[in-house]
Amino acid sequence: MSNVSAKQFNTVPAGNPAVESPLHWSYQQQKSTPSANAGVVLREKALLGHVVLRGGAIVMDEAVRQVLGMSLPAKPNTVTRDEAGERSIQWISPDEWLVIVPGGEECDLERRLREALGDAHVSIVNVSGGQTVLTLAGENAREVLMKTVAFDVHPQAFPVGKGVTTVFAKATVVLRRASETEWELVVRRSFADYCYRWLLDASKEYGIDTQ
Amino acid sequence: MFYIHCPYCQEHREEEEFHPRGEAHLMRPTDPDNATDEEWGDYLFFRQNPRGIHHELWVHSVGCRKFFNITRNTVTYEILETYRMGEQPSITAETEKLRKEQGVQTADGGWQTIGAQPDSRALNEETSS
Ligand SMILES: [Zn+2]
């Protein structure tokens, strides 16, 4: 609301506070021994900027084109990425999108989007502290997903560029296929340890390589 | 398990991602201040329990989190169609009765039930595009 003199909450922390991934504790607990010829490679893309956009598709598309130089995904269950692959916008529902940018960009992104959107009826929420991104690669990554998520992860049903919200071992996950070889899992902070340990257990039979 | 077509995600998803939320198309009394106790009671508590075609409200709770409607046969569990909020069903008890009277075979909508059409022809067509 540009013409309202409401006090804006500054979400940029002062100074340089220490930050930890939601998996910090899990890493302390699970000392995994790297196995040779691991079939599954599990990594975390920690501390990225996550922003949830809600509102009308047309007005939102104009704003993100202006601010990010990318368009909203035109089709349901798809993800658009910039050329470097560092920034992405995912369709979550007909009026909701998840934007993931390199850590530290999210506050500036939110401010610029608010400027571009003016008085439009939208919601922009910085959820960076609420979720984290895990990546799954390796020749057995798909087998691990097959016993974990309810969605069909066969390449025919799940091509590169697709992204869905689905059931992940009784929790929920935002699952995205980033490339032919790599899957991205956006997990909630409170489920992060559970999901991480589930993946360690489910990958055991193939051998797992964690960071 | 059902394989349910979400009209917002525009694809089939596992039943596990959904929740049923009761009868669809319930109308709040148009003049709430002057509605009788009986009208309020009907709106709040009394529901249809038909044998056959039923219109239900469902929510894609683990997916897009949108509410939508399902036309379902309560005898066979066959899902005949799914449609968005604000839309009207194309299949009702009346249309089904008419089809039977005219000797038309039952709808092929039943393929949404797993196993009814193992090739999932329509699904493959949808994803390969
Ligand atoms: Zn949906």
UniProtKB/TrEMBL annotation, chain A:
SUPFAM superfamilies: Folate-binding domain. Gene3D superfamilies: Heterotetrameric sarcosine oxidase (3.30.70.1520), Probable tRNA modification gtpase trme, domain 1 (3.30.1360.120). This is Sarcosine oxidase subunit gamma family protein. Transmembrane segments: none annotated. InterPro entries: SoxG, SoxG_het, TrmE/GcvT-like.
TrEMBL record, chain B:
InterPro entries: SoxD, SoxD_sf. Residues 99-129 are annotated as: Disordered. It comes from the Bacteria. Pfam families: SoxD. This is Sarcosine oxidase subunit delta.
